[in-house]
Structures are given as structure tokens and as C-alpha cells.
Amino acid sequence: MAALWLQLIKSRMSTQIDKEGCREAYNQVRDDNTDTNWAVFKYQGSMIVPADQGTDYEEFKKMCTDDARLFCFLRIMTGDAMSKRAKFTLITWIGDNIGGLQRAKISTDKALVKEIVQNFAKEFMFSDPKEVDEDYLRTELKKAGGANYDAQAE
Questions:
Q1: What are the residues facing 41 on neighbouring strands?
Q2: Given this model, what pLDDT does residue 142 score?
Q3: Which regions in the chain score pLDDT beneath 50?
Q4: What is the dihedral of CA 68, 47, 18, 43, to 10 degrees?
Q5: What is the spatial distance between Cα 19 and Cα 3, in angstroms, rounded to a whole number?
Q6: Would you tell me how many other CB atoms lie within 10 Å of the CB of residue 26?
């Protein structure tokens, strides 16, 4: 009986993920035929679910509040005069009001997200709204992308 009770408690505490829903949102961002450039996954109880997706980066930023724990898969166009290409990043957002246990748990829960979100150039973890700056992310993704011909542009 005690083993059954322990298993029940463990199953309620362990985080799960809506694989189908999250994969669909992820694929929308990866699809070059859509304008969707971000998808956010949030906690709904002990389940990670798709929260929203869109084309306006500012809408994503508004979701990064002090009380939120989020994962965001983001497409940013990088390049120069010679070539333009999509680069992808995974952002983990942990708001300032998130407690220690939930902060610690997000690190292990990220493994569930990474089972779906597998292709990205760089990963970030933020907790300050100032850090979620689109230009900063673009610069970091350029650095991760290799050749940069901006200096040769007229």
C-alpha cells in the first residue's frame, strides 16, 4: 500500500509534456511557409503545454512576467547583404517571483522540452525583462552562425 501511495505522489509531482501540442507549435515556427516566429510553452499544473505563438516579438515579451515560468522557441532572421537565414533559439524564462523549488525543477523539466525542441543554435535563460532584447539575441545568434560579411557591405 505504501509503495502505491509513493508512486501516486511521485506521478503527481513529476512534470509531463503535451508532446503533440508542443510539437505542432514547434513545427509552426520551423516552417518557412508560415510567419509564425515564436512559440511559448507554459506550465499548467504539472503539465507543460503550448501557451501561445505569434509573429510579433513584443507579444512574446509581454508574457515574460515576474510570476511566469516559460520556454520559448524563437526564430530570428540573421544574415547580411550576402545571405539571409533563419536561426533558432530556446529561451527559458524564470520570473523573479518564482520560488526556489520551482526554479530548480525548471532545469530538469527543460529536458522534456528538448525532446521536442531539438534544433536551435543557442540557448538562453533569463529572469530580467531587459535581458529579453531582440537585438541582443540577434547579435548572439550571429556570433553562433559563423561567417559575417557585414563589413563588406556598401
A1: 50, 71
A2: 82
A3: 4-11, 151-154
A4: 0
A5: 28
A6: 21
CA trace torsion 51, 57, 58, 59 (10° rounding): -20
Long-range contacts of 37-45 (CB under 8 A, 24+ apart): 37/74, 37/75, 37/76, 38/72, 38/73, 38/74, 38/75, 39/72, 39/73, 40/70, 40/71, 40/72, 41/17, 41/70, 41/71, 41/72, 41/73, 41/113, 42/68, 42/69, 42/70, 42/71, 43/15, 43/69
Task: For residue 97, give the DSSP letter.
Answer: T
Query: Which cell numbers hold the place of 17?
Result: 509534456
- Can you give the pLDDT at residue 4? 46
Whole-number pLDDT of residue 47? 95
CA 138 to chain centre: 15
Q: Convert the pLDDT of each residue in 4-43 to its tens digit.
A: 444 444 445 689 999 999 999 999 999 999 999 999 999 9
**φ and ψ at residue 133, rounded to 5 degrees:** -100, 125
Cβ proximity of 89 and 123 under 8 Å: yes
Is residue 103 within 8 Å of residue 68, measured between CB atoms? no
